[in-house]
Amino acid sequence: MDGEINEAPSNGLLNEAKLIEREVTIRNLILSKEVTETRRSLVRWLAVSLGLINHGETRQAAIQVFDSLMFFQFHERKDPEVPEMMTYIESAWGEPINEKTLRYHLLQLSKANIVKHAKGKYFLPQPDGGIKYDAEAWISHYFNSEITPIREKLITAVRELKSR
Fold this sequence. Notes:
There is one protein chain. This protein is mainly alpha-helical. The chain has two domains: about 100 residues, Arc Repressor Mutant, subunit A (Orthogonal Bundle), CATH 1.10.10.10; about 40 residues. The protein contains seven helices and two strands, in the order H-H-H-H-H-E-E-H-H. Strands 1-2 form a two-stranded antiparallel ribbon. The longest helix has 16 residues.
């Protein structure tokens, strides 16, 4: 079976690096009044909370790309193409973004299961049968798809530990 380790090494330690399927970072940040005052601070708060950037990160490109996705998905209710995101970022952030940089950050968001793409359009994954462009459905789906499998493995490990 994939991901299964059949025997422990002679020193009794597992190679944890081989066991990592993927890493998920979720941060529990205070949602203060200052955070809710501007769109930029809300987008940044979401990006830090979802582990898309580290706190104190000064580079803006990742936040700009995430912001463009949030704008098109929840305000415009559409799946944007790269040129539309570039136009939005230049307009909303007052500076152009290089297409290569934009695509790099879209790839990183895809690796984090935040964004999907098909036929040149980018979108936030929604649950089957879910309402497209619904922010609550999207975040619930994200947590269910990313956190629930980890939770289930933790429960299994604790049960195994209890029986030994």
